[in-house]
Amino acid sequence: KEHFSFGILSDAFTRLSKQTISTAQYMNESQVIRLLHCPPSKLKLLLREKLLLPNKRLNNGKQLFLRIDVECLNNRLTRCLSLDDSANLLDISSYKTRQLLRAGLITSILQPEGNNRDWLIEKLHIENFISRLKKGASRSVHYAEHNRITNKISFLKHNFIETIRDMLNGKMTYSFAENKSKPFSIEQFVPMALGDDQKIEGYLSPCEASGVLGVNINAIYDFIKRGYLDVEMKSVQRTTRPIKMIPTASIQQFKYRFILSGSRGKTSHLHSKISGPKLDGCCVNVYLNSRYSETTLAAKDAGIALFLNPVVET
Question: Is the pTM of this model over 0.70?
Answer without folding.
Answer: no
